[in-house]
């Protein structure tokens, strides 16, 4: 309106007969009028809030909502009483105000979410005040807006602290319900291997390994194209490392591919990161869509000190990924020299969840039977029903073994596909590094094996992909 300098938000109330007159030409057409006390005074053309509300009531029958910040809001449907608090009061929430940007937008969105559905005004106020509280507790505006799931959780359960952005459950819900892309199924070619390729290269320059990884990427694209002809399922992905595969990442980024990159130092136990102590700094250089993949050699019966150190590292991984707004995948592989039972994987996952770690994805060796799958599904869904799911790793198994693993996995909706590497490229890699085949043969063989494995997955899981990710929990579980 030109009544004050731009940016002087704290001095936004400036009386103006001209402004009030223009607003009042529109207000009689309104069904709902929402404003702060200052905005209501400007609209009503009075220095007193109650007097301004009475003028608005004289002009029409709109529902009037006065926003009062930390005190919530007050709603007036009929005549204006002698005191603001004699209206329908919607109490606010006691939270730390971290950033006020977006609070009004959030309040309005919450109120309209109920009002447009004819929900009771008390509920509309609760939605509005909760949305405002959640947004002011976070940094940012639009990205801080709560999802419907998060909103209902907050209204039903509250928060563990008035610093809402420090409530782990709320932040997890916010992150997992505002994801920008769905991945109902994934067929992933994993070639993030580093030490294995170094052994194959036998001292050849690093450029030789990088060249082979470029061939694998070409094979992945060709195999996906063959498998996707006339179909939209599954989605395709790659896991590629920075050390030798950096050049293949840009063409696969920003397209339809799911892309993950490893962060672990190969062969480390206890877990160490290739970036050392600068994991979060390294992740900040990645495109946000890239998933951080971390392999940990972990057994639930490891020595207590070793388990604690590994869990501390995974906690660091989670903090780095949350701080850089990216998803992360944990690959759990039990050590070969320790016995594995039906419940070994499930117990390992249980311990990781108990440490407060909730990855977006799991990558696991194929559980041996339906009972082992049920153990895994039970743990994941009990601790984090919003987990993306489990991807099967190949462990260099042949196609017949992988087909059997897929058939066992197919009835379990929590399994969203596979992330297989050496089963697809091990033989072509050995032949290429030995000079027995040319580049074109690598691409053709990898493409054919990748497409064939996708077909085997589809054959094993023709209907399970549409099944919801759900598990019947007992009364004991839900309690």
Number of helices: 19
Low-pLDDT parts are 464-479
Helix content percent band = 40-55%
Structural class: alpha/beta
Mean pLDDT: 92
Distance between the termini: 57 Å
Radius of gyration computed on alpha carbons: 28 Å
How are the strands ordered across the major sheet? Answer: 5-6-7-8-9-10-11-12
Strand content: 5-15%
Count of individual beta strands: 12
Shape: elongated
User: Could you give a short account of the major beta sheet?
Assistant: 8 strands, parallel, barrel
Describe the structure.
With about 475 residues, this protein is an alpha/beta fold. Helices cover about 45% and strands about 15% of the residues. It contains 19 helices and twelve strands. An eight-stranded parallel barrel has the order 5-6-7-8-9-10-11-12, surrounded by five helices. α16 links the parallel β11 and β12. α16 packs parallel to α18. The longest helix is centred in the middle third of the chain and has 22 residues. The radius of gyration is 28 Å and the shape is elongated. The C terminus is likely disordered.
Write the layout of secondary structure elements.
Layout: H1 17-26, E1 32-36, H2 37-44, H3 49-59, E2 63-67, E3 73-76, E4 88-90, H4 103-115, H5 121-136, H6 148-157, H7 168-177, E5 186-190, H8 195-201, H9 206-227, E6 235-239, H10 242-245, H11 249-252, E7 258-262, H12 279-283, E8 291-297, H13 304-323, E9 328-333, H14 344-354, E10 361-364, H15 370-383, E11 389-393, H16 399-409, E12 415-420, H17 422-433, H18 439-460, H19 475-478
Parallel strand pairs: 1-2, 5-6, 5-12, 6-7, 7-8, 8-9, 9-10, 10-11, 11-12
Antiparallel strand pairs: 2-3, 3-4
